[in-house]
Amino acid sequence: xxxxxxxxxxxxxxxxxxxxxxxxxxxxxxxxxxxxxxxxxxxxxxxxxxxxxxxxxxxxxxxxxxxxxxxxxxxxxxxxxxxxxxxxxxxxxxxxxxxxxxxxxxxxxxxxxxxxxxxxxxxxxxxxxxxxxxxxxxxxxxxxxxxxxxxxxxxxxxxxxxxxxxxxxxxxxxxxxxxxxxxxxxxxxxxxxxxxxxxxxxxxxxxxxxxxxxxxxxxxxxxxxxxxxxxxxxxxxxxxxxxxxxxxxxxxxxxxxxxxxxxxxxxxxxxxxxxxxxxxxxxxxxxxxxxxxxxxxxxxxxxxxxxxxxxxxxxxxxxxxxxxxxxxxxxxxxxxxxxxxxxxxxxxxxxxxxxxxxxxxxxxxxxxxxxxxxxxxxxxxxxxxxxxxxxxxxxxxxxxxxxxxxxxxxxxxxxxxxxx
Length: 420
What we know:
By secondary structure, the chain is mostly helical. The protein is 77% helix and 3% strand.
């Protein structure tokens, strides 16, 4: 993950979530310790001590829900703050870049920014917490069982972890490739969703039939890629965890064989078997979460790819769409017959008052020219597009007026605030 992607996830809410997840896992490890000690004292016929540890065990099972609730609380805030950080970066990078307001770039990227991005950060923050918690759960319990029962058990579990990380290293590229294709299918699907309103509500059969056909195709491909991503991750994690579980199973079998006559050790091993089975499940969950996190980091890199655009290259593309020989400029009834972008920009810059009209046939680049000029003039200009209803104004009641009245109300508010 790049530094920029990491920065978007480094929020104080995340640190709080990790802190309470740590406390949670310490409480879980303590509960394991208390039940092991209770069993050990019972086999030594120290029933009073055994009961005391059982009470501690019961208390730990109740108290653990407090850090769980707090970790979830901060994790939800973490997701929102991370997305808000991304949107601040996005607004800073694309502010006063009206050339990106429409066209293929917007069609391809709008759903990525408006819908997909928040889901990615919600998934990422959740996975960070889950990966961290499952890792701590596993390590704390392994160390505890190894120290209290036998250190060799700890080594077998650590060997299983090595197997999992080797498998992850081998499968990284496969997981990343599938995640990228799934993200592309999701963006394409939600881009079509953004166009659904007019195609459905206007009731034009031809437009609706085209939309419906495309919806079925994109839904099918999106479903296929979602299933492929999940299946790929499940196959890789299953094979890796099977190998790790066989290694641990061999170690546990060896321990029973060597200590079959030691009642205390065998009893403690048996009483911890449910916890060890849970730990084996945690290994599977940890590895699956690790693969999921690889997928989501690939998606975050895709988001941050928005900030790798070269505005110089994009400006060349914009200029190439402006057909200067097809445009004419009229000022106060006099036609300015031939011009280029530089001379026209200088002409407008020297102009103090008055109206300039740009004429041209459809597709000649009138709107593109206005976008280009707005970028050049920056805060000295105000670009009001023909379709401006998604722009925010203080006079929210203007939405209830006719199109002409809305336009005049927008002009009034712009004039009032632009002069300040």
